[in-house]
Write a structure and sequence with these properties.
The chain is an alpha/beta fold. The chain is built from eight helices and six strands, in the order αααβααβααβββαβ. Strands 2-1-5-6 form a four-stranded mixed beta sheet, covered by helices on one side. A two-stranded antiparallel ribbon has the order 3-4.
């Protein structure tokens, strides 16, 4: 069964955008999602929504947080949400940098070839262009996380102690999928929960993987990964 949320976006996104023009793609989609979940009838008639979503505005529009997410080349986003212990944060960043360098170096380990050493065992001469290429490769490979650590007070206030769901809604795009099928003799959850199962549908998020540095991270020096979707086991939440 195709997800009806796309049809809701095709119908409601443009008007939602015009009503709140100073927001952005993610917020507009969230507003449409709220209408979707508030409606008793999720499925729309086939002739209600016209057009396709291939190049729709809800795919192509920009968002204020794209610069820190969609537009980045890194594999994921590391979001600092606690600013109470600068020493602990700097210690964590140092360990993270070391780990990224180790990760970046591992796939480059190769047996020496003709261009690595001269036949008599002396080191081969490399050109400045070669050094530049290697430096570019190292920079791209070490870019595993984009670290979001704002310095302005108002930006820090936005992220301080932010919930996982609120973080997802800033840096990922909302979507809807079919909820996992309940096992035999298992009733659907009551009351319905859009993050678990509401009318057979489930709210999920699409985008870069997100890790949270929170107050607990100051002591255990670990970050928490944020779930974008639930597992395929019924009853688990996004």
């Amino acid at each position: 069964m195709s997800c009806p949320f796309v049809e809701w976006l095709l119908i409601h996104y443009a008007s939602t955008k015009s009503q709140s023009p100073n927001e952005g793609r993610r917020r507009w989609k969230l507003r449409v999602a709220q209408k979707f979940w508030s409606s008793g009838e999720k499925m729309l008639s086939s002739n209600t929504a016209g057009g396709t979503d291939d190049n729709a505005d809800f795919h192509m529009d920009v968002d204020p947080f794209d610069e820190a997410s969609t537009s980045r080349e890194e594999l994921g986003i590391l979001l600092r949400t606690d600013f109470s212990d600068e020493a602990a944060w700097l210690a964590f960043c140092s360990r993270l940098e070391e780990g990224e360098k180790e990760f970046a170096a591992s796939p480059l380990e190769e047996d020496p070839g003709p261009n690595k050493a001269s036949p008599n065992g002396t080191a081969a001469t490399t050109t400045a262009e070669d050094d530049s290429d290697e430096s570019d490769d190292e920079n791209s490979l070490s870019a595993i996380f984009h670290v979001v650590n704002p310095s302005l007070p108002q930006e820090r206030a936005l992220l301080t102690n932010i919930s996982n769901l609120a973080a997802l809604r800033l840096f990922n795009d909302v979507d809807v999928r079919q909820a996992p099928t309940p096992p035999p003799d298992t009733k659907r959850i009551r009351p319905p929960n859009r993050l678990v199962d509401s009318g057979g549908w489930q709210e999920v998020y699409v985008g870069k993987n997100l890790w949270i540095y929170d107050a607990k991270s100051n002591s255990d020096q670990c970050v928490r990964v944020v779930s974008q979707t639930s597992s395929d086991m019924y009853g688990t939440a996004t």
